[in-house]
């Protein structure tokens, strides 16, 4: 599982945890999240996220 960080506000999406409050189930891969999804903290799109090295 991977983690992705918003380059604008620093919010992190963890594939293992998902984002249930946004309707994204735990275990949802980044590529399976709709392209029009936005960061729940600052409202930017998926293009403004980078994969984090673990």
Automatic annotation (TrEMBL):
State the needed cofactors, names only: Fe(3+)
Cross-referenced InterPro entries: Rubredoxin, Rubredoxin-like_dom, Rubredoxin_dom, Rubredoxin_ET, Rubredoxin_Fe_BS
| Binding-site residues, Fe cation | 6, 9, 39, 42
Residues in domain Rubredoxin-like? Answer: 1-52
Q: Cross-referenced SUPFAM superfamilies, in alphabetical order?
A: Rubredoxin-like
Report keywords, A-Z.
Answer: Electron transport, Iron, Metal-binding, Transport
Gene Ontology molecular functions: electron transfer activity; iron ion binding
Superkingdom to which the source organism belongs: Bacteria
Q: In which pathway does it act?
A: Hydrocarbon metabolism; alkane degradation
One Gene Ontology BP term is: alkane catabolic process
**Could you say which protein family the record assigns here?**
Belongs to the rubredoxin family.
Which PANTHER family does its entry note?
RUBREDOXIN, RUBREDOXIN-1-RELATED
Q: What does this protein do?
A: Involved in the hydrocarbon hydroxylating system, which transfers electrons from NADH to rubredoxin reductase and then through rubredoxin to alkane 1 monooxygenase.
Q: What is this protein called?
A: Rubredoxin
Protein's organism: Psychrobacter luti
